[in-house]
Amino acid sequence: MEARGCPKLNIQVRSTNEAVLAFYNKLGYTVDPVVSLGKRLIQDTQQ
User: Fold this and answer.
1) Angle CA(21)–CA(23)–CA(28) in degrees, nearest 5?
2) Domain region containing 11
3) What is the reported pLDDT for 21?
4) How many domains is the chain built from?
5) Rounded to whole angstroms, how far apart are CA atoms 38 and 44?
6) What pLDDT, in 10s, does the model give residues 7-30?
7) Could you write out the DSSP letters of every residue in 2-35?
8) For 6, how many CA atoms within 13 A lie in the half-sphere containing its CB?
């Protein structure tokens, strides 16, 4: 990937999704010390 000009990949996963976190960890991904911010524009509807 670096040869193509892509030195890093970033993936967002919910911190509660332990199975997916373990999967990406096995692929060599590590947790970065960052904060992800979001703002809901439309509220989720409860079913």
Assistant:
1) 90
2) 1-33
3) 96
4) 1
5) 14
6) 889 999 998 999 999 999 999 999
7) GGGT---------TT-HHHHHHHHHTT----S--
8) 4
